[in-house]
Amino acid sequence: MSHTQPLTEVAEFPVTTEDLLGKLIAFSTEHNYALAAWRVPESGITHIILTIKPEPFLLADSFEDVGAGFIFHPFDVTQPGIFIKADVQFSFHEGALQADEQKNSKALEWLNAHITETGNTTSQPAFAAASKLNTPVDYKELVQQSIRHIEHGYAEKIVPSRVKQVALSSSFDVADAFTRLERTYPNALVSFVFTPQHGAWLGATPETLVSVEKNIFRTVALAGTQVYADGTNLKHVAWTQKEIEEQAFVSRYIINCFKKIRLREFEEHGPKTIVAGNVMHLKTDFSVDMKATNFPQLGSVMLRLLHPTSAVCGTPLEAARKFLEDHEGYPRGFYSGFLGPVNISNASHLFVNLRCMQLFADQAWLYAGAGVTADSIPEKEWEETEMKMNTLLNVINLQ
């Protein structure tokens, strides 16, 4: 595509998600824009938004009041997150740009004004060089420490995590990786986020933290992990006592959050076995009619109560968080934080940032954790983190 030809006049519409995302990522990294691209579960619509001025987002803020955009928040509740405002917004249906939508027309005008800067670029985005990562303690030993901590009565469940560094070839294509994840994981939030301050993150997470749409609030309790094989009858999947208890911790945590705000009018469905890529989990769905309960800001209230959930930290929350702070050995950053679109098409969908990787100039850091209880076996917990990392590695060609 010639850089002198405006996109709105290009005859070969539609522009594909992959083509435009690649150009916009290169532009954003070069010109210090913040960018978010995502597709929510069971949707054929992909969104890409950009802003030159990402704003801080604090847990104390109400996402109902911030306008249309994308929130990206770290695991650490004391650190601010980022709100990427939808100053420029493109939407795609089944990979094709929706040229007739007004917001896309405005976005194309913006793109035409900057097209000489993106040009006919096929160059790779300028991601930051990786900083030195202190090698964490051996993961199996960390699990063993967690078990001892639980056996001594300090906690009931702890979710230690680890990070794996993988070499990234110079030909790695982020936009291609994003669209591969979209095709492979229709039931996940597939996302790519870049900010000049926080770098580039790519992921496909199955876990809803807070969803608000048509006055219905939703959240889920997701825990327990098994390998999924094609053709498995989900009704016949057997779960161990350890996995059932682990998932029950998360359900109780959510119910206790409802109790804190004296909310009794909620529906609970599950647990049931669901598939998330190459693995299966136990999941319970919770929903609340916000109109019937007269609770218009339930989404933000529950977000503050839920994050971080026992599924990514442990139970009791403070005891588990303190243990991880003292023993995990590396900063989680945005892994196991939350992310997602807010006030887009009159809906907000925030997810726990699982199955994610941080991208650097020549390497990727993959993150995963496992829920540890008194019945855990360190080798099996390590295998669980490998399975979770393979959710991305099986799909993305890092080389």
Descriptive overview:
- With 399 residues, the chain is an alpha+beta fold.
- It has a domain at 139-165 and 208-393: Anthranilate synthase.
- It is built from eight helices and 20 strands.
- Strands 7-6-2-1-10-11-19-20-9 form a nine-stranded antiparallel β-sheet. A nine-stranded antiparallel β-sheet has the order 3-5-4-17-18-12-13-15-14. A two-stranded antiparallel sheet has the order 8-16.
- A hairpin with a 3-residue loop joins strand 19 (356-359) and strand 20.
- Helix 1 (17-31) crosses helix 4 (174-184) and helix 3 (139-151) packs across helix 8 (378-393).
- The longest helix is centred in the middle third of the chain and has 20 residues, at 241-260.
- It starts with 16 loop residues before the first helix and ends in a 6-residue tail after the last helix.
- Residues 1-14 and 118-122 have low confidence and may be disordered.
Helices and strands in order:
Layout: H1 17-31, E1 34-39, E2 45-51, E3 55-57, E4 69-73, E5 81-85, E6 88-93, E7 96-97, H2 102-118, H3 139-151, E8 157-158, E9 161-167, H4 174-184, E10 189-195, E11 199-205, E12 208-213, E13 216-227, H5 241-260, E14 267-276, E15 279-289, H6 298-306, E16 314-315, H7 317-327, E17 338-342, E18 347-352, E19 356-359, E20 363-369, H8 378-393
Helix pairs in contact: 1-4, 3-8
> How many β strands by DSSP?
20
Please identify, by name, the CATH architecture of the domain at 139-165 and 208-393: 4-Layer Sandwich
Write down the oligomeric state: single chain
Strand content: 25-35%
What do we call the CATH topology of the domain at 139-165 and 208-393? Anthranilate synthase
Bin the helical content. Answer: 25-40%
